[in-house]
Amino acid sequence: MNSGVFKNIIRFVSLILLQVLIFDNIQLHSLVVPIIFPLIILLLPLNLPNGLVMLIAMFTGLTVDMFNNTLGMSAAACVFMAFLRPVVLSWLTPRGGYEQGHYPSLMVMGFSWFIVYASICILCYHIAYFFIEAFSVRFMAETILKILLSTLISLLLFIVHQIIFQTKS
Amino acid sequence: MRELIQFIVRYNSIFIFIILELVCFIFLSAGNSYQRASLLNSANQIAGNTFQMRSNVSDYLNLRTVNDSLVRENAKLHQQIQQMQQADRSVVVRDTIETPVVINEDSLIYDCFLYTEAKIINNSTNRLNNFITLDKGYKDGLEKEMGLVGANGVVGIIKDVSANYSSAMSLLHKNIRISAKIKANNYFGIIVWQGRNPDIVSFRDIPNHVEVNKGDTIVTSGFSAIFPEDILIGVVEEISLKDGANFYTIDVRLASDFRRLKYVYAIENLNKDEQLILQEESEDE
Lengths: 169, 285
What we know:
The structure holds two protein chains of two kinds. Chain A is an all-alpha fold.
């Protein structure tokens, strides 16, 4: 249990640093915003109560917001994603259900399961984030394009991260 | 009552969700207001130190481009010094021929802006509201609402200041408004960013009878007490006039490349308080 908490804290710090020091500085195009830190929330243990997951999500979002001067924006999107996470998880329940203490990672759940899970969650995140950022329907076409492209790039980052840092727990 | 509690317990995650989202939106609206400084911004110690750390490493990678731009700026400044010296001499000559006038009043214009150099340690261009973090804070004399200019013109306005760091609204911010004019004929309007291309801003409020050409230089108007007059912003890229509209829609290509900014100057207007008080007084009347 304790090593699990420790692992999550390490992941939190490393992914936040990766996000604000490297990925926030990669400016491929004004339509692409590469994002990796929501992985912190996606990889939380399955048996964690949902309220706690949302609180962690808010804290994570606020930390990133502090670096980006977007107070509340990432946090709102993260909470939204964390709220929908159990819904997605229950859709994707494998035959026989989840095992106790499982992590929803690529290694444990398999490649195709992880891709579906991560893409739905990160899509929810980006929809919330970019609509809050635009706060109007004026940039509709652009916002939708931004959502799709950023989701694609972020998903790619997630998979690469999961392949590099393979953990069974 | 028991049913109500049961209801809340049963749907507890929805209630937690709503409460947390409400908190986030309160943060959001507080952070967006221009006047109120917030504690959680990139000017605070944690964010500033982190960015400084990265900057210490990554600075070595851009030394060559930074050097090139500094040399270019130096050359430009040398040229300006020379022009100014010549202009000064002509003033003196004319004065001695006519009556000996006191020219101290004019020197006020040169003295009232103070420049402080600062390094950019974090910058973004792909959001709708872009911010810049600088490696100097109030210990170095930086204050809220000071203007920032780079080697090639206007960069932004400082929004929050801590002891050692400050964060500024980039010109690429949805809410920024900068008073500007066409250099050739002094007609003034407002520069705003449309939130799309980090190279293009739009220049508004120019009436349709004014002559505007592609390639015209747009500079600051000096009306705002934040920026001095005649600081470069960009050149006119495209002019269009919608049917029946009284004002042009003008696209201006920015002179500075916001993706490559490294060093900026923060401008302090020493006469700012006086100017603002005077403006307020005359508005009240």
